[in-house]
Specification:
Blueprint: E1 8-10, E2 19-28, E3 33-44, H1 45-51, H2 55-64, H3 66-84, H4 90-101, H5 103-143, H6 145-157, H7 170-186, H8 199-211, H9 216-235, H10 266-274, H11 279-294, H12 298-301, E4 309-311, E5 317-322, E6 329-333, H13 337-345, H14 355-369, E7 379-382, H15 386-394, E8 400-401, E9 407-410, H16 417-431, H17 436-443, H18 448-452, H19 459-473
Antiparallel strand pairs: 1-2, 2-3, 4-5, 5-6, 7-9, 8-9
Helix pairs in contact: 1-2, 3-4, 4-5, 6-7, 11-14, 11-16
Length: 478
């Protein structure tokens, strides 16, 4: 076969076309190639076939088409350089051929590739920016104290978070809900982060509560809650501020910091038991007395059911309950005939009365009883609650003051649901019939210190007790 005058050829399938693209056949053992490469140059098929038919025609064609042959020569050099190279890059060769054959198109393609690459880079930048913003948002959400507290309270309400292995009690849920509401007032814009919790932050929190009129006992209670959930968050890996727990210290509580805490004497309880009442007042009185005779919290004594009443193997009548606040099991002997009578009165289906109703009506009942029991009308100094101070400011309530400027309330008006537990424990103590361990078994206290806080004897009453002991000894002690 005669050697072709040009390495470029019109493909057989294009031979009958008027205009066709020239192709260059590339063969290389080194790169294992045997392919046709488009030159990207289109020619008149008839003229090209005539040009390659003889050397004379070829020379004449080159003279008439200098630019065309210059392009073809450059393309050959590009292909040869690629074949001689270590790696044959087909896409690179095609791009260089196009740059020779059609510079405008090649430039357009180049610009398009640049634009495409820039668009890719911009898209990656946007994605990275969005991921960074999302990461920062998650970090900010995680760093926000309020977000954890809000989720914490909702989780314990929905029982998604347990207190050890058991759900939080209704009383605990109520307390945490109250703390969340208070914290929302302290940090209304929810800007506080875990790293912000330091001594200054805790001081601001205490100052906020003090200005809000909270008693020291309440301040301490909320400090305990604050410290607790900071600790929970640390355990959960939400923050790494391991110094935060160091800044929560309870304030010392003086007697002048607390509302008066009284107990009802056994005589006053008997008068209350014998007081003729009907309807809701009778039910409130009876439920309150059950609290006095069992030494329990209102969350327990207001919700006794027939199943709580049972007997020991020796036949001792007892009330068996799992205390709602602590989950402690206590077995309370029925130590009072009055308690037995109240239980039988309702066939052990005691009225279910909420603490708000008890607090409201027991004051009215005891105030009425004070007309025949003067000790209940005795006025004692106290610290007003936040609600009472607000009522004083609004003029809806007024209180007498003593010479020291202390507010005075009657003993009847200082009674709350918790007075029942305090009265029961104090009267057990005054009977001098039981050991501390026995009394703590009834009350459910775990430490003697906490138990002793419930014994509300005045210095005068303690002096009278000592004097009675001295008199009974029939001689001097010293």
């Amino acid at each position: 076969m005669a050697k072709s005058l040009s390495k470029f050829q019109v493909r057989r399938q294009d031979a009958k076309q008027k205009i066709a693209t020239l192709f260059l056949r590339i063969q290389s053992r080194k790169h294992k190639l045997d392919i046709l490469f488009s030159s990207q140059i289109r020619v008149n098929v008839k003229e090209w076939q005539e040009a390659v038919s003889s050397p004379e025609n070829w020379e004449q064609h080159k003279k008439r088409n200098n630019r065309l042959h210059e392009q073809l020569t450059r393309i050959e050099l590009v292909v040869k350089g690629a074949i001689d190279g270590v790696v044959f890059d087909k896409a690179q060769v095609e791009a260089e051929i196009l740059a020779i054959a059609d510079p405008k198109k090649a430039d357009g393609n180049r610009k398009a590739e640049i634009a495409k690459e820039e668009a890719r880079i911009e898209e990656e930048r946007k994605i990275a920016a969005e991921e960074d913003a999302e990461r920062r948002a998650k970090e900010a959400e995680k760093a926000c104290v309020w977000n954890y507290l809000d989720t914490f309270v909702e989780d314990i309400k929905a029982k998604r978070r347990l207190n050890g292995n058991t759900p939080y009690t209704p009383g605990s849920i109520k307390a945490w809900n109250s703390f969340r509401k208070l914290f929302n007032g302290f940090d209304p814009k929810h800007k506080l982060t875990w790293n912000d919790i330091d001594r200054a932050c805790v001081t601001k929190f205490i100052d906020y509560l003090s200005k809000g009129g909270y008693m020291v006992t309440s301040i301490n209670k909320y400090l305990v809650s604050f410290r607790a959930f900071v600790g929970y968050a640390y355990t959960d890996g939400v923050h790494n501020n391991d110094r935060a727990m160091m800044f929560f210290s309870k304030r010392k509580i003086e007697e002048t910091d607390k509302a008066v805490e009284i107990y009802l004497t056994s005589d006053e309880l008997q008068a209350l038991y014998e007081m003729p009442l009907t309807g809701l007042k009778e039910q409130v009185r009876d439920v309150f007395l059950v609290g006095c005779y069992t030494c329990q919290r209102v969350s327990d004594y207001s919700k006794l059911t027939p199943e709580c009443f049972t007997t020991t193997s020796k036949g001792t009548k007892i009330i068996r309950i799992i205390q709602q606040k602590t989950r402690n099991e206590v077995m309370i002997p029925i130590m009072s005939n009055n308690l037995q009578a109240i239980c039988e009165k309702y066939n052990y289906h005691l009225p279910q009365v909420v603490d708000q109703i008890i607090n409201r009506y027991i004051k009215e009942i005891l105030t009425e009883l004070s007309q025949t029991v003067p000790s209940l009308a005795k006025k004692v100094p106290t610290v007003l609650t936040m609600k009472q101070r607000k009522n004083v400011e609004e003029g809806t309530m007024s209180f007498e003051k003593n010479s020291k400027g202390e507010y005075l309330v009657t003993r009847a008006n200082s009674v709350t649901t918790h007075t029942a537990r305090r009265s029961g424990i104090t009267n057990m103590y005054l009977s001098h019939k039981f050991t501390i361990v026995q009394m703590m078994h009834v009350s459910g206290h775990k430490t003697q210190k906490t138990f002793m806080d419930y014994i509300k004897l005045s210095s005068e009453e303690i002096a009278d007790e000592i004097n009675a002991i001295v008199a009974a000894s029939k001689g001097d002690i010293f």
